[in-house]
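Lesson 9: reading folded outputs for more than one chain in a single document. The general rule is that every protein is listed as its sequence immediately followed by its structure tokens, and records are never interleaved. Here is the first one.
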Amino acid sequence: MISGREVECGVLGSNASAIGEIKILGNHEFYDFEAKYMDDSADLIVPAKLDKKIQGDLQQLAARVFDYFNCEGLARVDFFLTKDDEIFVNEINTMPGFTSISMFPRMWEASGVKYDELVDYLIQEALNRPIGLH
């Protein structure tokens, strides 16, 4: 287990969004299925209250993870941030939630990209992508 904060960053191509944070409420030790879907035991804070340098480090790392795995379109990179500001990549989600209240669009809205602009960007990016494997 890594003790600390759970933070996330959306990625579109080489661009990274504002950072979001999941704060666990109630009696949950971590952001499990029950906390997320059953009893609404989490606050989603966008943008996360972080030092500017840490924000920049997270955004750079999110874009690097996206590139490392040769992702296309969109992804959300989740991190753990320790009390000593040590960053651990938790996972990359290549199909993040995409409702208007999901973290991915909320992070992009905090970055100045509205939901309809986000959808339009993804459609245009997909139309311009070469067909087939490459």
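And here is the second record, again sequence then tokens.
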Amino acid sequence: MLKAITLLGSSSGRNAGDAALIAAIMDGVDARCGERLLYEIPTIRPAYIRDHYPHRVRPVGMLPWNFSVKMLGLPTLRSVRRTDLTVIFDAILFDRALYNPLFNFMSTLRLILPWAKRRGRRLACYNVGVGPVRTAAGRRMLRTLADLMDFITVRDQESLDILRDVGARNPRIVIGADAAVNAPAADDARVTAILRKAGFEPGEPALGINVNIYVDTWAAPVSGHLRRRPAKGHRGIERAAALFLGSSTPTRASRGS
């Protein structure tokens, strides 16, 4: 019987999409199990996890004073050992900056999860986005992690294709929808207030782009090429937005994070 789950993914509390994804996963699992499970969530913002979810959550600090470098450290290791199931979620299975634990989690998972598997812990990838994986070492790591899992669900065909391409042999892989779509929606009044704060009127056509360092380094004007050095500050945000909008400068851009 499941009583406690460790959720390993993007849990910074600084990204609304990630926050919605965490809530939707916990909602869905609790509903399926018919009880409120305990979720241990390694995070750099324990207070956010503790204060913003109605679920049974236990934030696991992964800052330097917790003897941790992001996910690499004693807090995550101990959480995986304590709980009944460890679930990888979100899009953290890529090989950019593969050996930098401040940016990349896949190499950390490669260290921790085989140890957990040998000790009888159950492992799963739930609703993951996979890739890009372009190095030989990254492909080996991804294949190893995929074959450790008790089951895998991916949120798009491209992720499934990448797992097959790297040679994953796990027979329990299925495609599902992005779990964030199951997150409770705000009411109309709240949506209207958010739109007006951003400078839009309800019903006005709008295109929203999450512009961050991933876009600015992984997207480039020439297909198949990567930016090696991200542009800095607002200039980087404007360049990335212009890339997607197909113009020299975006017509309207929010300069918030």
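What the second record shows: Residues 16-33 form the longest helix (18 residues).
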